[in-house]
Amino acid sequence: MEVGGELDEDDEGWNNLDVNQHVNNVKYVEWILEGAPSSIKKSHGLSRVDMEFRKECNSDSILKCLSKMYENYISKSHNSANGNNNGSVEVEHSLRLDNGQEVARGRTLWNPKHA
Questions:
Q1: Which of 22, 58, 78, 86 is catalytic?
Q2: Which pTM was predicted?
């Protein structure tokens, strides 16, 4: 999935820039959540987000969001000592510029939704 694009002052996305004209950190989180598999978003609820910001990008940056899913993730907070799988899914995310440089990386944890 490619995210990003040019912004101008009339564009509602202009508010996504900080005073230095760099993309606001909240936007990075939104982009990685957009990059999570839709099947996971339908069946699981977001439990945790960890982010590591590595490089700034600005309004004319073109980014790619890469995601890798780890099914059958056993959460340490849900009795994993005895090997029980609680159905959680962990997803690793990487936001990269079109030249391949990593702008941010993230990790999300998704727990099953219970009916």
A1: 22
A2: 0.73
Give residue limits of the domains in the chain: 2-112
Q: How is domain 2-112 classified at the CATH fold level?
A: Thiol Ester Dehydrase; Chain A (3.10.129)
* pLDDT for res 76: 52
Is 57 in the active site?
Answer: yes
The answer to whether 115 and 43 are in contact (CB under 8 A) is: no
Catalytic residue among 15, 20, 82, 99: 20
With CA atoms as reference, report the closest residue to 103 among 35, 9, 15. Answer: 35
Question: What φ, ψ does residue 103 adopt, rounded to 5°?
Answer: -95, -40
- List 15, 24, 57, 86, catalytic entry: 57
pLDDT, tens only, 7-53: 344 444 557 777 887 888 888 899 899 888 888 899 999 999 999 99
Give the residue, 29 or 83, on which the prediction is more confident. 29
